[in-house]
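User: Please fill in residues for this 233-position structure.
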């Protein structure tokens, strides 16, 4: 579904990515792992067209994304849950959800506000609350719901559970398991390795702008050298 080949990205004269390769199949859950500052967010932003790659190829369902505007990439079926959530503070929770609602791929069973509330009942109870009055956990649930309202085929989460209480994190992981059952592929950046490896089919570790390890969750659990060298576990 998503294939990134030999991707390089610069910020002015500073190179951030050095030939990144990764691939996610339909219905798969993949992780992008690594310490802070290693290129995870830059990789996501390159996929979404938020930053322009210098070279390489990014294809989604055989459509080349490099050179496309972010809104066109989103319309192809990629939903982003950005780091920091970035919800609209001056809109209500309900308004945040309907503001992004679309069905460009003409799904026969599109995501609706009610479906999002079924996934996250806490949001239904706060539907009239303004975005800036929500807790961090509620904001993250809303950010996920907002992305689902675009009816994506691939959901990308940058720091899926960062800064959240353990109970809220577990609700997020449970929701992601339910989302994958809807045949939505997922790419996750997060630091909670134990929870990630429970749901991930494939894992990619990035170090200084390069993919240095790729494989299954079972293989990563056994690779103590990679865990220590690249993730500090």
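Assistant: Residues filled in for all 233 positions:
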């Amino acid at each position: 579904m998503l294939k990134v080949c030999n991707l390089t990205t610069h910020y002015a004269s500073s190179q951030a990515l050095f030939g990144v390769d990764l691939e996610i199949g339909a219905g798969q859950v993949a992780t992008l792992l690594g310490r802070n500052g290693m290129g995870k967010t830059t990789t996501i932003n390159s996929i979404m067209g938020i930053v322009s790659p210098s070279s390489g190829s990014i294809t989604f369902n055989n459509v080349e994304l490099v050179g496309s505007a972010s809104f066109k990439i989103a319309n192809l079926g990629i939903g982003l849950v950005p780091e920091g959530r970035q919800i609209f503070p001056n809109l209500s929770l309900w308004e945040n959800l309907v503001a992004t609602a679309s069905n460009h791929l003409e799904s026969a069973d599109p995501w609706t506000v009610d479906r999002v509330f079924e996934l996250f009942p806490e949001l239904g109870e706060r539907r009239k609350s303004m975005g800036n009055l929500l807790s961090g956990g509620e904001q993250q649930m809303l950010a996920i719901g907002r992305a689902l309202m675009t009816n994506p085929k691939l959901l990308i989460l940058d720091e899926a559970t960062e800064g959240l209480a353990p109970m809220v994190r577990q609700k997020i992981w449970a929701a992601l398991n339910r989302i994958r059952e809807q045949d939505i592929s997922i790419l996750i950046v997060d630091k909670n390795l134990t929870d990630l490896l429970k749901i991930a089919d494939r894992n990619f570790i990035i170090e200084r702008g390069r993919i240095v390890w790729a494989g299954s969750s079972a293989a990563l659990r056994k690779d103590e050298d990679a865990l220590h060298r690249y993730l500090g576990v």
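For context: The radius of gyration is 17 Å.
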